[in-house]
Amino acid sequence: MEAVQTWVSNHKLTSIGAIWASAVGASLAYNTFTGAKTPLKPSLRLIHARMHAQALTLAVLSGAAAYHYYEKNTSSKQEEAVHR
């Protein structure tokens, strides 16, 4: 798990781009296979897929910001404890 975290922290933009592309693909696949329930034009399916992917990207960015904040606070508290 630590190797994945290290890779993600070294390749942040690649990770976010991969998540975005995966979300677009998953949303398009979902809308295509459930098309019988909601008949949408392909252009509208693409718009919905992009909206879902953008929402997921914002969630991932928020999580990354929270993780960065937590990591920074934890390391600064450890440094203070060492200096005392």
TrEMBL record:
It is found in: Mitochondrion. Keywords: Membrane, Transmembrane, Transmembrane helix. GO terms for cellular component: mitochondrion. It holds the Pfam family HIG_1_N. It comes from the Eukaryota. Residues 1-79 form the HIG1 domain. The keyword Transmembrane applies. The chain crosses the membrane at residues 12-30, 51-70. One of its GO terms (biological process) is mitochondrial respiratory chain complex IV assembly. InterPro entries: Hypoxia_induced_domain, Rcf2. PANTHER family: RESPIRATORY SUPERCOMPLEX FACTOR 2, MITOCHONDRIAL. This is BTB/POZ domain-containing protein.
